[in-house]
Amino acid sequence: MASQKMYNPYKEQRYALFTLHGSIVDDIFIGVMFSVAWSVLITALYEVLHINLAIPAQIITILSFVASLILAFRTNTAYERFIEARRVWGTMTVAIRNLARLAWIHSKEDPKVADLIEKKTIINLLLAYAIATKHYLRYEFGTEHKDLKYLLGDFPSHINTELVQVDSAPALRRRNLPFFHMSHPDNVRLVPKIATALEDNNQATPDNIPLQITFLISAWINHQTKATRIDVPTTNGMMNAINSMVECLTTFERILRTPMPAAYSIQLAHTVWIYLIALPFQLVSTFHWITLVVVAIAAFTLLGFEAIGKEIENPFGYDPNDMPLDDLCDVIRNELEVLTSTTSPGNVETWIFSKLNKPFHSSEFSAVELKKQNVNLVRQLYVDDVNFASKAKGNDHGLSHSEHTIIELPVTGGTSEQANESEKAKADEIKVNEPELRH
Predict the structure, then answer these.
(1) Rounded to whole angstroms, how far apart are CA atoms 115 and 385?
(2) Which of 6, 36, 58, 153 is most buried, judged by most C-beta within 10 A?
(3) pTM recorded for the entire structure
């Protein structure tokens, strides 16, 4: 498996003052220029033509207070949606990890190729669920995506992805495509059609591929339970993970399909622009031509926060400020590939009693060598590890190899008298160290 560069979400924040990528300058540039042009007109009428257009400051004070409250609420609401979406994705990742762990380790595996194929298929479906969720939240329906098709294999035969025109799906058009107008016949789009009773009413909804993947995984869990390959606690754990995945998907849909009410957004835009239009009338008598600079700063600030609220309200798109869904899916892919690239650690003998396992820091001997010794010696190593840890805490650089307490193992196969003397000496040493261990 090829190594991938680690995604660093904080890289561009180091020099935020000089970074344009991810900023909203392009979105508000026209609005700021219009505000400046308007202030130029008002200032020119006041300074050149000597037309007194100044107004009392109390009006602007009231408008600024209202606009600031609305902008703060708008931005906070959008940010809460963004954070909730990220939190739910984390919950979904936990469910996928738990289900992958239970399927790979706790499902009984006979020495047959079919069992290995089953497990690998389920792991592929878990990755497909994450990727399908990403596309589903971006309104990219179907299973023909490059990063999804190879994971599903023949499963599209169980998932109806026939394409239909949107004009035959009024329910879909109202719910999922708010900016799509059927008055233009050239804009007819193709979306997947689900095989449901809605077809009888000339209605269609996009295939919910993530939900249908959970159906397939649930069917496999049911098959494993009937075949007694997983016990009841494992079955409960798997079903809890499946339920969590479905709950996360439903929460994603709630965030995606519940935007800020239109009346609120419209009123916010009106309030901000009324404030920006009225601002030069208050400032011109005090700042004169500097009014242009003050208005530009005010427009950049107010329009900027409004644009930020609009952009992060839907965190599932391709904008720089949206959730990095592609990177988050890559994290899941890498973890599942590592899981399936090794054999199941179900046989603990192979990795616990290994020559590479040295369980005691105070000893250089492996678990295989220690397994042949008596119990008293191993218990003494527990005491030595406590002393070793105490010394390591007092040394910021740790202990060097020469400072390790190396215990020599007794030679097996000697006379019975030598063995008895060795065991007696070890017993006496343990008694001496017992008070120290209690402390």
Answers:
(1) 42
(2) 36
(3) 0.72
What span, in angstroms and rounded, lies between the C-alpha atoms of 432 and 60?
Answer: 84
Q: Residues 245, 88: contact at Cβ < 8 Å? A: no
CB-count exposure of residue 350 (10 Å: 0-12, 13-18, 19+): exposed
pLDDT band of 435, cuts 50, 70, 90: very low
Is there a contact between 194 and 207 (Cβ–Cβ < 8 Å)?
yes
Domain boundaries, the chain: 27-146+212-340, 354-438
Q: Report helix, strand or coil for 47.
A: helix
Number of C-alpha atoms within 13 angstroms, CB side, residue 28? 26
User: Rounded mean pLDDT of 98-119?
Assistant: 84
Name residue, tokens 């408008």: 63
- Quick one: tokens of 121? 């298929």
Positive or negative, the Cα torsion across 329, 334, 339, 341? Answer: positive
CA nearest neighbour of 100 among 245, 202, 215, 1: 245
Asked if 364 contacts 414 with a C-beta cutoff of 8 angstroms, the reply is no
What are 344's two structure tokens?
């199941």
